[in-house]
Amino acid sequence: MHIAVLNGPNLNRLGKRPVQQYGNETLAQLEARIGAHASHIGVGVTFFQSNHEGELIDRVYDDIDDVDGFIVNPAGLTTYGRSLADALAECGVPYAVVHLSQPYRHRGSDMLDVFRDRAAAYICGLGWRGYAAALDAFADTARSESD
Predict the structure, then answer these.
(1) Using 50, 70 and 90 to split pLDDT, how confident is the model at 105?
(2) Is 99 a catalytic residue?
(3) CB-side exposure of 82: number of CA atoms within 13 Å?
(4) Which of 37, 95, 99, 131 is catalytic?
(5) Domains of the chain, residue spans
(6) Active-site option among 22, 37, 95, 131
(7) CATH superfamily placement of domain 2-86+102-146
(8) What is the pTM of this model?
(9) pLDDT, tens digit, for every residue of 30-79?
(10) Exposure letters 2-33 (e unless 16+ CB within 10 A, then b)
């Protein structure tokens, strides 16, 4: 099993962004934790981060035949990234949405998340552990499908 992790705008600034909201780990540290967990459960993982929606869409299409799922943190694209949300929903590969923090806490309970409704899983507020939970869900699904 192989999962592609896509991180959206501003996540390259982790560790420098408001630590009370996003924590003090850098993106490299976050990816190391996720990679270690993936290795522990026997899942291959690749990482890609971009501040540009088109680059994230290109990556979805580049990876579509080589992955069993996507984990996406849309970050700054959460409310307006319809093109990326559509690419993920239409690619025929399941995806999980992960937010490091609780976006509804900072943006209000009526915040729009264009990724939420079509995601196989939606995880908020667990920090890096949200990615681990998404990896676990993909691995558990694969195991149950092979039984």
Answers:
(1) low
(2) yes
(3) 2
(4) 99
(5) 2-86+102-146
(6) 22
(7) Dehydroquinase, class II (3.40.50.9100)
(8) 0.91
(9) 999 999 999 999 999 999 999 999 999 999 999 999 999 999 999 989 99
(10) ebbbbbbbebbebeebeeeebbebeeeebbeb
